[in-house]
Amino acid sequence: MIMTRRERAWIAVKRGAGALRDRWFPEPASAPLLSQKAVAGPVPWVIAIMTALTVVAAAGGLALGSIARTAEADLAGGVTVQIAGPAQAETRKQASAAVDALRNLPGVTDVRRLPDAEREALLRPWLGDAAMEDGEPGEDSLLVLPELIELRLAADAQDTGIESIREALAEPAPDATVSADMEWLAPLEGAISALQWLAVALVALLVTATAASVLLASRSALAANHDTIEIMHLLGAHDRQVAQMFQKAAGLSAAAGGAAGFAVAQATIIALGRRFADLGPGNTAAGLHWYDWIALALIPIAGVALAAFTARITVLATLRRMP
C-alpha cells in the first residue's frame, strides 16, 4: 500500500505521542484489588456536607464569642445618667449641676453631656418624625427631652463607681437615674452563651454523624468485597494490610470531601458577613480573627483523621469476626 507523505508524517506523530505517553504516563500493570470508588462509596459527599455544616456552626460560635468580647470591652466602665421628669428648665439646671459634680468625682475619667440634636436622633426612631417636628423642645413644649450624660469610670473604680455617682448626684440632681452600660449586656451574654453551647452541641452531633457514615460505608464496602478479601487472605494478606487499604481510601475520600465542604462553608461565612455588615465591627465575618480561621481550617483536617481512624477500627473489628 502506497502512502502519501502526509499520511506517513501523521503516523510518525501518532507513534511519537504514544511513546511519550507510555514513558511518562504508563498504564498500571494490573488493576487494584479494591478500587477507590468501591471502598469509599458515598463518603466524599457525606464528608463534604458534614464539613460545611461543622465549619459554619463553629464559625457562628466563634463569632458570637468575639462579638460578646467586643461589646464588653466597649461598654466596660461606661455609665449613663438620665434626668427626666421635671420641666425643661429644671431638667437643664440639674444636668448642668450634675456635670459639675461628676467632673470633680474621683475615678471618673470622662464626662459628656449629649446635645439636643443627638438626643433627638436617639428618640426619633421611637417617636417618629411627626412627633419630633410637632413638639420642638422648648419652654412651652409638651415634649421634654430627657437629659443624658455619658461618663466613663477608671478600671479601679468600676466596682464601687455606681454607688459613689448616685451619692454625688443625690443633692445637685435628685431626679437623676444612674445605670451602668454593662447592665443591659447581662441578658445578651446569657443568650450568646446559650447559642455558643448550641454550636458546640451541633459540632459534636456532626462529628458523630461523620464517624457513623464512615463506619456504615466501611461495613458496606467490606460486605461488597467479601470474596476479594478472602482471596487476599488466601494469598497471605494480613488484616492490617486490608485495613490499611480501607484507611487510605477513607482518608482520600475525606480529604476531597473536606476541601469541597470547607470551600462552601467559607463562601457562606463571607456571604453572611456581608449581610451583617451594618452591625459594625462586631459582625459575623469581621468577628473572626486570624486564629479563628486557623481553627476552622483544622476542621477538615480533623475530619480526614477521623475518617481514616474510623475506617481502620471498623475494618479490623469486622475482619476479626470473619471466619
Descriptive overview:
68% of the residues lie in helices and 7% in strands. By secondary structure, the protein is α+β, with helices and mostly antiparallel strands. The chain has 2 domains: 31-71 and 186-321, no CATH class; 77-181, Alpha-Beta Plaits (2-Layer Sandwich), CATH 3.30.70. Strands 2-3-1-4 form a 4-stranded antiparallel β-sheet, with helices on one face. The mean pLDDT is 77.
Quickly list its features:
7% strand; alpha+beta; transmembrane helix; 68% helix; membrane; Alpha-Beta Plaits
Compile the SSE list and pairings.
Layout: H1 5-24, H2 36-40, H3 43-75, E1 78-83, H4 88-103, E2 108-113, H5 116-127, H6 129-134, E3 147-153, H7 161-169, E4 176-180, H8 185-224, H9 226-234, H10 239-275, H11 290-321
Antiparallel strand pairs: 1-3, 1-4, 2-3
Helix pairs in contact: 3-8, 3-10, 3-11, 8-11, 10-11
**Can you count the helices?**
11
Roughly what fraction of the amino acids lie in strands? 5-15%
> How much helicity do the residues have?
55-70%
Form type: elongated
Strand count, sense and closure of the main sheet? Answer: 4 strands, antiparallel
* Assembly category: single chain
- The strand order across the widest sheet is 2-3-1-4
Quote the distance from N terminus to C terminus.
64 Å
Order of helices and strands: HHHEHEHHEHEHHHH
Which structural class is indicated by helix and strand composition?
alpha+beta
